[in-house]
Amino acid sequence: MLKLERLVRGGEADGAAPALTLELPFHSRSKSRLRVTLSDGRDAGVFLPRGTVVRGGDRLLSRDGEQVQVIAARERLSRVSAKDPLAFARACYHLGNRHVPLEIGAGFACYLRDPVLDQMARGLGVLVEEAVLPFEPEAGAYAAPGHSHSAGHSHSHSHSHSAGTSRDGARSHDEAQHDD
User: Fold this and answer.
1) Of 40, 56, 105, 179, whose CB neighbour count within 10 A is largest?
2) pLDDT for 149-161, tens place per residue?
3) How far does the chain reach from its first CA to its final CA, in angstroms?
4) The dihedral sign for the CA sequence 67, 7, 30, 130
C-alpha cells in the first residue's frame, strides 16, 4: 500500500499536475489517518500530522516522491444568501456560534446540508438553497493560511488570580492561609 505522508499546498506545488488523483469530501480531508483508493484503483494510506486539513488542489506525496492531486468532492450543501447585509451577517454569526463548518464567499455562505439549520437560517431572513459543490469551509480565526489551528501549537491561556494582591492591594485568601 502506498503511504502518503507529506502535504504540499496547492499554491506551493511545482510542475504539472500529477496523473494520480484522489477525490474526497471535507469530512475525509480533515482526518489525519485515512485509507483511500486512488484514481488508478490502488489502495493508499494518508498519514499526516494531527489537525491537518487537506484542501482541494493540495498534493499528497509518498516518501519515494509519488504525487497525488487532491480534489474536493462535490457535496450536498445549503447555500445561504441575502439582499440585506445585516441579515446575512446575523445568519453567519448564528451558524458559526453553533460551530458549523462554514464556507464564506462574496455574498454567500455554505454549510453541509442540515434541515434544522436551514429552518433557523430562513427564520433569520436569508435565502437558503440546496447546492451540490466542493466544500471548503473556513479554517478558523487562529489558523494561518493553509493549516489548521491545532497543527502543532496551542493558543490556550491561563490566568490565576488566587496569589498575590488584588488591584486594591488586598491579599488573596490563598496567600493569607500561608502566613500561619
Assistant:
1) 56
2) 333 333 333 333 3
3) 67
4) negative
- Rounded Cα distance, 58 and 21, in Å: 10
Tell whether the model's pLDDT for residue 111 goes beyond 90: yes
- The answer to pTM > 0.90 is no
One DSSP character per residue, 140-156 reads -TTPPTTS-TTSS----
Evaluate whether 95 touches 108 at the Cβ level (below 8 Å): no
